[in-house]
User: What shape does this take?
Amino acid sequence: MLRRPRLTYANVTATLALFVALGGTSWAVTQLPKDSVGKGQLKTGAVTTNKLARGAVTADKLAAGVAVSGPRGPRGPQGPAGAGGADGATDSSWEPWRPLPLAPGWAALGTDQPAPEYRRDAQGNAQLRGTIRPTTGTTAKVTDSLIGTIPAGSRPKYREIFNVRSSPDAGGVAHVDVLPDGSVVWRDGTANPPVLTSLNGIFYSRI
Assistant: This one.
């Protein structure tokens, strides 16, 4: 036959002590004194924007010097104009024009036309300009005639072939070659002998 356990003073005392301990812990968790949790008790990053109630933090609750975004203000007046920039360089990579040495039988046209000249740039290009005429006048035809010689350093790497303006015909064209040895040669043209031949538009690579 089982015996019923006897209720002793020790059992009662232990039960009361457990009840008081548990009740005190619950009170401590749910009834924190005012201002008992401060910056020292919070972990870094524990309080974020989404954990704050809307309107919980207002300007009067922020420390002095903390910036607060407000509504956008009106547009201010336009400031004074800045200083003008420097003028851009023109043809800064091109060397100055130099006279093209002409062969016997050719001369500059003169009048208001530029003299025959050549120049080169730092990128490996060169060009000619000017207007020339045969010194033999208009009585002798010109064929495979050397106009002049471009100095070394400004000559093309390969033979270059050009169609340039020539007259007396309004639409006259002359065939002029520029060779790797610097020779500028008048081959033929629609007007032969020509009254004039333009070297404008002769542009080639030196490399």
